[in-house]
Amino acid sequence: MTTQSEAIAADLEAIRANYSLTDEQSQIVDHVDRVSREVLHPLQARMDDEEWWPDDLFKQMGELGLLGITAPEELGGSGQNEFTQALVSEVISKWNPAVGLSHGAHDNLCLNNLLRNGSEEQVKKYVPGLCSGELVGALGLTEPGAGSDALGSMATTARRDGDDYVINGSKIYITNGPIADVILLYAKTDKSKGAKGISAFIIETDNPGFKVAQKLDKMGFRGSPTGELVFEDCRVPASAMVGPENTGVSVVMSGLDLERAMVASVCVGMAERALELGLEYAKIREQFGKPIASFQMMQSKLAEIYTEVETARAFGYRALAACTGLPKGAGGRGEIHKLTAAACLYAGEAFNKAVTEACHIHGGSGYMQDTEINRLFRANKLLEIGAGTSEVRKIIIAEELLRA
Amino acid sequence: MNKQLRNDTALPTHFMTDEQQALADQAGKFFMSEFHHLNAEMDDTDDLPSSVFPKLGEMGYLGLNVPPEFGGAGLDFTSACIITEQLSRASAAIGLTHVAHDNLCVNNIYRNANDDLRRKYLPGLCNGTLIGALGLTEPGAGSDALGSMRTTAKKDADDYILNGAKIRS
Ligand SMILES: Cc1cc2nc3c(=O)[nH]c(=O)nc-3n(C[C@H](O)[C@H](O)[C@H](O)COP(=O)(O)OP(=O)(O)OC[C@H]3O[C@@H](n4cnc5c(N)ncnc54)[C@H](O)[C@@H]3O)c2cc1C
Ligand SMILES: Cc1cc2nc3c(=O)[nH]c(=O)nc-3n(C[C@H](O)[C@H](O)[C@H](O)COP(=O)(O)OP(=O)(O)OC[C@H]3O[C@@H](n4cnc5c(N)ncnc54)[C@H](O)[C@@H]3O)c2cc1C
Question: Domain named Acyl-CoA dehydrogenase/oxidase N-terminal: which ranges (chain A) (predicted)?
Answer without folding.
Answer: 22-134
